[in-house]
Amino acid sequence: MKKVLGAVCGASALLLSFPSMAETTLTIATVNNGDMIRMQGLTSEFTAKNPDITVKWVTLEENVLRQRVTTDIATKGGQFDVLTIGTYEVPIWAKKGWLVPLANLGADYDVADILPKIRDAVSVDGKLYAAPFYGESSMVMYRTDLFEKAGLKMPEKPTWDFVIDAAKKLTDKAGGVYGICLRGKAGWGENMAFLTAMSNSYGARWFDEKWQPQFNSPEWKTTLTTYVNLMKEAGPPGASSNGFNENLALFNAGKCGMWIDATVAASFVTNPKDSKVADKVGFALAPNTGLGKNANWLWAWSLAIPAGSKKSDAAEKFIAWATSKDYTKLVASKEGWANVPPGTRTSLYQNPDYLKVAPFAKPTLASIDAADPNKPTVKPVPYVGVQYAAIPEFQGIGTQVGQQFSAALAGSMTVDAALTAAQSATEREMKRAGYIK
Amino acid sequence: MARMATTRRVAVSTIGAWLAGFLIFFPILWMVLASFKTELEAFAIPPSFLFFHWTLENYATVQERSDYLHHAMNSIIIAGGSTLIALLIAIPAAWSMAFSPTKRTKDILLWMLSTKMMPPVGVLVPIYLIYKTFGLLDSRIGLVFILCLGNLPIVIWMLFTYFKEIPRDILEAARMDGATIGRELVYVLTPMAIPGLASTMLLNLILAWNEAFWTLNLSTLHAAPLTTFIASYSSPEGLFWAKLSAASTLAIAPILVLGWFSQKQLVRGLTFGAVK
Could you say which DSSP state residue A59 is in? Predict the structure, then answer.
């Protein structure tokens, strides 16, 4: 009897103690970018401190991830506990109630240290809905040797007139060097990211205060005409199919005099392992036209928790770890300061060790500071976002417009025809979505 | 003279066939070559064909970062499972439609094919919700089921075409010789249907192996096959071609080898009934 009683007691004790021993498995959806891959490699540091949490990664290409995660969150599928999303999704998803506000990141997290522009971009009504993992803007990367040879000096804040003139002077088509490399591949996150940012510097906007599309405005005409003419004269052949990676390859091979793209490219073009021109690159702010806005964007890959997640405590713990100052120090100790995720914390840009190894740190910070998602362009707009309008319809509309502009660059369509097509496509979609009548 | 012309014609057509074959195979060859390059060389303009610094670094990185065997095993189970179930359903269906057709047989066949006319993304959300309700998300059985359903119309159509080619007189002759249904099936029909069955099976296996819409959208970790393994190496920001090529080479290797060994059956099956 005693034996039976003992066995029953033992079994009950085992059963009762089971929940406290239970492991929480976090499934994290992320993109295949260098900083994210590094984070995956360092996960063991997190699990060592939190032995009750196991971390599993789902890495996907950006557009695949967006579709996958959107389906899951819209249907409350519950497949992911932490999502990697951009500044475009955060305001839309937060307003739909799809994200959990991050209120328990810990006492030493120091939210105030997050760069104000980035913090704004991932907050809605003052609440943080995602924690930025790395932030980026765009800037001019240029070849110092070619500039010197041409007798040019890049100003810190160049104007479009200067950039256009320099691009023409640097172009040596016979020698395979093109004055400027810019995105031309169609897509809302491809050519439209660049062109929308460029249009802001020319005072154009996607919509007026009443959501009326503005592609029939003189500002858009100037933007697109300038872009197409510049690329015809000083751009590489086949530019209409070039995105970030294609231009990176061209720049690293020494084929571009200038390249205006994501600040995160700075670490690639200055890395001698990847670039033939690593020691000959200078940086400057994205160009302006004197209207008070530069042609640069703002983006942050951020970590968020889907609403309805049953593991939100563990998820928030992970997010707090991955986006903390300590994580930055951890990466620096393991892989050097040049490899820490950039663009999220003020303290990083005050760190002398980082400033020493990252010549692009100051222009990156200045570029991020120069972008304002709430006031992206000269005239007032009803939307949030610098190189996009944070409305669910934008992905579709942006890509349609991008196709027209890419066709204009390829020469299969005139600038006027592309703008007219963009205007009518946007009007149609906005009417369908009920923004305008 | 006639002999010479024939030899020349044979030579020309052989060279033509080799050229066409090389052209079709070139993207795969290029991918394999890129997998042995460094990221910088994979992007280099002009590209180097054979004279570059050969490295296994990409394969090492891929091995380190991903669990290839887990994904490969999932692919084998999902592609194999869906093919087997599809064949189990399709063989009797095609058999009855080929040998005992009714007035509606043609309509049924067309209706089945019409299910392939809708883009899968159109039913993604309903299917996702159904899978969520039945707990089939990220499960191998769920993927086997959806791929089986997706390929079933093609399998039935292919088998129907092969079975139609088998002359009914032979069956009747066998019956007249006193063969039972079992013997008729084993000794008369099976040998005649094997090339068709084999090629249908192989084609379905390849289709299921390469299917990248449902497998990406309905799997997360547990059931993720090689398509998600490849997708994890693509990135719009950063140099990734060499690693992506290494991942893709590893992903297509098993099915490529299988295709190579069974090409005789595949070609025989695909051309079965082409010449009357």
Answer: E
* pLDDT surpasses 60 at B68: yes
Residue among B154, B135, B143, B136 nearest B227 (CA)? B143
Winning range, highest mean pLDDT, from A254-263, B59-68, B198-207: A254-263
Tell me how far apart the alpha carbons of residues A241 and A218 are, in angstroms, rounded to a whole number: 26
Query: How many whole angstroms separate alpha carbon A11 and alpha carbon B242?
Result: 54
Distances (CA, A) of B100 to A386, B92, B103, B108, B180: 66, 11, 10, 14, 18
Question: What per-residue string of b and e applies to B209-218 under the rule 16 or more CB within 10 Å gives b?
Answer: bebeebbbbb
Q: Which of B41, B235, B245 to mutate to test the interface with A (most CBs of A within 10 A)?
A: B235
CA B217 to chain centre: 19
Instruction: Give the span between the Cα atoms of A138 and B86, in whole angstroms.
Output: 51
Q: Which value does ipTM take for this structure?
A: 0.81
Per-residue confidence (pLDDT) for residue B15, from 0 to 100? 95
Residues 6+ apart with CB under 8 A from B19: none
By the 8 A CB rule, do A224 and A145 touch? no
Nearest beta carbon to residue B216 from set A59, A64, A243: A64
Q: Which two tokens stand for residue B134?
A: 């039945």
- Count the Cβ atoms, other than its own, within 10 Å of residue A420: 15
Interface residue of A25, A37, A61, A276 to substitute, partner B, most B CBs within 10 Å: A61
Peptide bond into B46 cis (omega under 30): yes
Rounded Cα gap, residues B92 and B185, in angstroms: 12
Tell me the C-alpha distance between A94 and A72, whole Å. 15
A31 touches B at CB < 8 Å: yes
pLDDT tens by residue, B204-263? 999 999 999 999 999 999 999 999 999 888 877 777 889 999 999 999 998 888 888 877
- Tokens of residue A335, six digits: 């892989």
> Which of these, A121, A167, A152, A140, lies nearest to A360 by C-alpha position?
A140
Helix or strand holding residue A362 (H, E): helix A361-370
Sort out which chain B residues have CB atoms less than 8 A from A253's CB and list them: 43-45
Contact A340, A109 (CB under 8 A): no
Tokens at A105, concatenated: 């990141």
Closest Cβ opposite residue B137 in set A56, A79, A248: A79
Is there a contact between A324 and A109 (Cβ–Cβ < 8 Å)?
A: yes
Which of the four pLDDT bands, split at 50, 70 and 90, describes residue B100? confident
Identity of the amino acid at B205: L
- CA dist list (Å): A215 to A206, A270, A427: 7, 37, 10
How large a percentage of chain A has pLDDT more than 70? 95
What's the predicted TM-score (pTM) here? 0.85
Please indicate whether, in this complex, the C-beta atoms of A274 and B239 are within 8 angstroms of each other: yes
Three-class SS of residue A5? helix
| pLDDT, averaged across chain A | 91
Q: What is the signed CA dihedral for B194, B195, B198, B201, rounded to 10 degrees?
A: -110
Q: Which two tokens stand for residue A271?
A: 């890395």
Contact assessment for residue B246 and residue A199, using Cβ atoms and an 8 Å cutoff? no
* DSSP three-state, residue A355: helix
Structure tokens that stand for A437 in this block: 């009548």
Residue A288: closest CA among A388, A412, A181, A138: A138
Q: pLDDT-derived band of residue B82, with 50, 70 and 90 as boundaries?
A: very high
Question: B142: Cβ–Cβ under 8 A, 6 or more apart, which residues?
Answer: B131, B136, B218, B223
pLDDT value at residue B44 = 73
Q: CA A87, CA A189: separation in Å to the nearest integer?
A: 12
